[in-house]
Amino acid sequence: MQAERPDTERGACAVLVALQTGGLSERGLTASLDELARLLETAGGVEAARVVQNAPSADPRTYIGSGKAKEIAEFIRNDGGIDLVVFDNELTPSQIRNLEDIFDVRVIDRTMLILDIFALHAVTGEGKLQVEIACLRYSAPRLTGKGKSLSRQGGTSGPIGSRGPGESKLELDRRRIRERISALNAELKDIEKTRAVNRSQRTRAGIPTAAIVGYTNAGKSTLLNRLTDAGILAEDKLFATLDPTTRRLSLPRGGEILLTDTVGFIDRLPTHLVKAFKSTLEEATFADIIVHLVDASEPADERTRKQGVTLRLLEELGVSGKPVIEVYNKMDAAVDADFIPPAAVCISAATGAGIDRLLDVLEQTAESGSRTVKFFFPHKDARAAGELFDRARVVERVYTDEGICLTVCCDEKTIGRYRQFQVDDFGQ
Hints:
Elements: E1 13-20, H1 26-42, E2 46-54, H2 66-79, E3 84-87, H3 93-103, E4 106-109, H4 110-121, H5 125-139, E5 152-154, E6 166-168, H6 169-205, E7 209-214, H7 220-228, E8 245-250, E9 256-261, H8 271-276, H9 278-286, E10 289-295, H10 300-316, E11 324-329, E12 345-346, H11 355-366, E13 371-378, H12 382-391, E14 393-399, E15 403-410, H13 412-417, E16 422-425
């Protein structure tokens, strides 16, 4: 255990703790703790020390065993500046209580730290609702009580000395949490309905959609800003963006696409967190194209691990069968470049390098399901011609005395919408 005195003005000083049971390599364990340190930094804290306990399995009482727990407690007492102990895995309520009794400082786990960051970065009403639901779902099974807090607050049955007005304080708190979650879900459903209406309008407009997905801090917001001048806060921090942002992007040959930035993924993201952010993440579910952003500045094995996490979570969300564009970002600081797949699009969202190539690939992918079709619009239907002009890539336009002839490249939905004006089909 080594300690470096951090600047305590930055926030709480924390000891990071991990359990090595043989499931991770030394390099993998170090990467996991590095990520935990980044999460702590994003939440406003600073790392004071790291502790790794090697054991065949987790101790049910203290997770790391009483001996190692006492060792950490002694370090905390001697240091005098430790405010927090953060575990790299999810702890049970009893483990947290037992460890806090031993350490005499607050104890949190990886999930609690992520929830704290989510609460810090949620901006929109939808994001705040999602965070509150996630926090309540996490807190409900962790409610505890002792002494008077567990005394009966109600009810007339039972032996002498146990009767009271009804629910225990603990039961009452849990019921209130359930009621609050129910109310928040109702609010969230109203927002989801609005999102669904907006999505259907985009579908009717015939504009293809693409969702930028990837591990947290891969550079998704920076990329959206580079492509669309979206003005999203882009920081070198984990989960800097929680709320999805959609912007219209003009493509090189005149077409358009709607591009959405999504919340970043992370390893061991609890299921209840994924569920809480379902309405945000479903932008990827309904997108026509997936842009999978990978951080090229990390070692090849770390990139592979994070790609696996992203693909696994996408599968859990039901995202499959869609065209995927694999984009390696931060090529200006790339390591292990020899291990980057030849088919990948290599860019630097920060400098703009490779962006033209990405735009070309986006356009090609968007048009892969399109056909070149000729339409004729009489003058009385000039409004419909204007709509098609906005929704498709116009290859040629010819004005006649009777109206306008448009040759466009568009998808089947758009062809169906203007079928009555179709005069020729050039195939694929």
